[in-house]
Each structure stands twice: as C-alpha cells, then as structure tokens.
C-alpha cells in the first residue's frame, strides 16, 4: 500500500514522503492516527505542497544546523513560565514555550516538532532537552526554567 506521510514517523519517513507499507500498518495505524493518507495521483499534489512547506521550515543544510547547534549549546537558555509557591508550575512547559525561547537565543526560528522532551517539565530549575536540527545534527540544550 502506498501512503503519503503527513507527519514525520520514526524509522519510516518525513512529511510529504511517499512510502510503501504493509496494508495493515497503513490501514490500522498510519491513516487512523492522521500520520498519512492513501496515495492517489490527486493526493500527490498535496504531498508536493507538504514537502515545499517542510523545506521552507527546515534548516538549510548540515553546516547551518551545526552553526545553530553551537549557539544553542553555548549557554543555558532561560524559559520564563508562570509558577506558584514552592516552584510549582501552572501546567507543564510545552514544546512551543521551549521553541520560542530557543528561537530568541539562536536568532533563528526553531520548529516545536523538532524538540524532544523526555518527560514533561513541571518544576522550576535546570532541565535538558534535545533538538533535532537536521537529519544528522542534534543539539543537547540546557534549559533554566524560571518564574515570569
């Protein structure tokens, strides 16, 4: 079965890629969860637009990704959030909050979907996250979650 991926799927492909998968995997997992759509000639135009949007968002090349990695790993990044007594947060720090703080620190826009959070961040203090800047380049970033 041919599937056009609408999101990145680990060990399968990125958004806009046309992949060949087993019928059950496509029918029972990818399509119901919105990770892909069934391939048709008409849907191929949609796949091309997804790829164009992805390339506009993506970091230009590996050298540029290494440059951004150096900026991000150079010093800890401060993320300001609402917090109550005892350093307890109102909710958790989201990938969008982290992406905004990283964007300010790097001077470049960082896509929130490239941020890998191990566990939800629900307390003030230092935390570590990983940012996948390019297929071959990942940055380990130190975050300081501080009250706003």
TrEMBL record:
GO BP term (any one): translation
InterPro entries reported for this sequence: Ribosomal_bL9, Ribosomal_bL9/RNase_H1_N, Ribosomal_bL9_bac/chp, Ribosomal_bL9_C, Ribosomal_bL9_C_sf, Ribosomal_bL9_N, Ribosomal_bL9_N_sf
Family named by the database record: Belongs to the bacterial ribosomal protein bL9 family.
Keywords: Ribonucleoprotein, Ribosomal protein, RNA-binding, rRNA-binding
GO MF terms held by the record: rRNA binding; structural constituent of ribosome
HAMAP family reported for this sequence: Ribosomal_bL9
Gene Ontology CC terms, in alphabetical order: ribonucleoprotein complex; ribosome
The protein's role, per its UniProt record: Binds to the 23S rRNA.
Coiled-coil stretches: none
One Pfam family linked to the record: Ribosomal_L9_N
Protein name (record): Large ribosomal subunit protein bL9
């Amino acid at each position: 079965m041919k599937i056009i991926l609408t999101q990145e799927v680990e060990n399968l492909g990125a958004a806009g890629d046309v992949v060949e998968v087993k019928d059950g995997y496509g029918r029972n997992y990818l399509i119901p969860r919105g990770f892909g759509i069934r391939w048709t000639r008409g849907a191929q135009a949609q796949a091309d637009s997804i790829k164009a949007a992805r390339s506009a968002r993506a970091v230009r090349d590996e050298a540029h990704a290494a440059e951004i990695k150096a900026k991000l790993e150079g010093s800890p990044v401060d993320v300001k959030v609402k917090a109550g007594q005892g350093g307890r947060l109102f909710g958790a720090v989201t990938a969008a909050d982290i992406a905004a703080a990283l964007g300010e620190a790097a001077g470049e826009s960082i896509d929130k979907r490239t941020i890998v959070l191990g566990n939800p961040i629900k307390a003030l203090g230092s935390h570590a996250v990983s940012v996948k800047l390019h297929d071959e380049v990942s940055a380990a970033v130190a975050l300081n979650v501080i009250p706003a």
